[in-house]
């Protein structure tokens, strides 16, 4: 009887183990990390029109970090102001989107890694504009920038201060550029490297004017609050690719 009872118990244990495995108990075999981004921010990230893949400096930098640290990544594109809520609601593991870690209260909501790129704001205007810089903008003018960005905050601040008639914040940079091309706004406040990427193919219709302005920006990837293990891996990977030359190779490729 004891032997029979033991056989029954072993059989039940095997069934229980199988059920746990089928339901994902004891940990998932798929340890792929989800990176959320907003892919209208070239050269940091954009969507390839032919393949539909997210391409740019950020994806290639993160791929190099992932290879160095033995991580697997998948990318999800969403609106910029949805990125931090995505981490907070477990819809993503990492933000990598040319995000300025010094802006607003972002650092209170997510944990940022080491700075991987520094930038400043510039004023982008039509090629025939008489504006000479941000200080020459008149109170009856309109400026555009992307929602949730430092530039978006700046145009709203200028509107509230009466420096411009309206600060228009839009979901994507492409929308901001289109408004400028159509004459609906007199300029776009944009991060310098992003504006430079636009000018690479639009130097006949647009230009930078004046010097950089606003608070200095530091771009960094971010993880959920308290996820120190992942953040340490990402920071170590970033340090390693800077040391072995891969980081500079990507800078030369995307910002030359």
Give structural attributes.
globular; 256 residues; alpha/beta; D-Maltodextrin-Binding Protein, domain 2; 2 domains; five-stranded mixed beta sheet; 25% strand; 9 helices
What does this structure look like?
This protein folds into 2 domains: 33-116 and 220-255, Periplasmic binding protein-like II (D-Maltodextrin-Binding Protein, domain 2, 3-Layer(aba) Sandwich); 120-214, D-Maltodextrin-Binding Protein, domain 2. The chain has helices spanning 2-23, 57-69, 83-88, 106-109, 150-160, 173-181, 192-202, 228-243, 246-255, and strands spanning 33-37, 40-41, 45-47, 54-55, 73-77, 94-95, 110-112, 117-126, 142-146, 166-170, 187-191, 206-219, 222-224. The chain has 256 residues and is of the alpha/beta class. The strands form 3 sheets. The protein has a 5-stranded mixed beta sheet. It has a 5-stranded mixed beta sheet with strand order 10-9-11-8-12, sandwiched between helices.
